[in-house]
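Reviewers of the previous submission asked for a worked example of the structure-prediction workflow described in the proposal, so we include one complete record here. The input consisted solely of the amino acid sequence. No template or homolog information was supplied to the procedure at any stage.
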Amino acid sequence: MTRTTHVTVAITAALGYSILVGVQGIEVVAGAVCSCMIPDIDQKIKWLGHRRQTHSILFLAMFWLLWMLYPSGVTIGLIIGIWSHMAIDMLNSKGIELYYPFNTKNYSLCSLKYNGIGEKIIRYVSVGASLGMIGWMVGGRL
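From that input alone, the workflow returned the following C-alpha cells.
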C-alpha cells in the first residue's frame, strides 16, 4: 500500500480511538503518524526481509511494552500507527507474516492492488471519516 494510505488510515484510527476513549487526539494522532511507516523500515534493512519481523504481533508487542512502561497518548499512538500499517498490508495478496517467528505463513484478507481502486476507496473513505471525526471533536463533543 502507498505511504499516503498508511498515513490517512493511521490518522483515522487514532482519531477514532481518541473519540472512543474520550481523550484529546493530538498526541495520539502524532504518535500514529510518526509510527505508521516504521514497519516498512524492513525495506531499507534488507536482512530483515519485507513483511516479516516488523509486520508481526511480536514487533507490535514491543511497542505495547513501551506503552506499559511510559503510558501516554503518544505511545498509544505509536501502537495504533503500527497496528494500522499491519492491518492495511493484510489487504493485498502478499499479506504479512503476522505470527513471525513462530509461524511464517503469510496472512492476507483480500488482494487489493497497490494504488488500485480498492486502495483509493479506502484512502478516500479514511479521509472523509477523519474529517467527520475532527468536526465532531471541534463541535464540542470532546
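The chain has one domain: 3-141. We consider this example representative of the routine output the project will generate in years two and three.
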